[in-house]
Specification:
By secondary structure, the protein is mainly α. 65% of the residues lie in helices and 0% in strands. It has a domain at 8-63. The termini are far apart.
Length: 115
């Protein structure tokens, strides 16, 4: 019999010393309180293991579930405009860019025609 690395002779010595220190009347009470403490420790350990297994199962379920991806558009952030300038929207900027490209196509570079 080997409990926590303590053999039978060591266990008997500990019991004899405890009997001498606490006395025969107090020893059963100490044994009962020690047994209750070990029982509550065992119960807490079982609860911890149950909770740990439950969380592991939830994690497995979430890992095996198909992922859903949704893209959310970020909220526009307002930048301070310098005084005297008006705000341009993305539609206005796109229209300006289209006009610039159309003008470039209609009037080619003078350097490209001279060569």
């Amino acid at each position: 019999m080997n409990i926590f690395g303590i053999g039978l002779p060591e266990m008997a010595l500990i019991l004899v010393v405890a009997l001498l220190v606490f006395g025969p009347k107090k020893l059963p009470e100490i044994g009962r309180s020690l047994a209750q403490a070990l029982g509550s420790f065992k119960k807490a350990q079982q609860e911890f293991e149950t909770e740990f297994k439950k969380e592991a199962e939830d994690l497995k379920k979430s890992m095996n579930a198909p992922m859903k991806a949704e893209i959310e558009r970020p909220e526009p952030k307002a930048l301070p405009q310098p005084e005297g300038e008006t705000e341009t929207t993305t539609e206005d900027a796109a229209a300006d860019e289209t006009e610039t490209v159309a003008a470039d196509v209609a009037a080619p570079d003078a350097s490209a025609t001279s060569s």
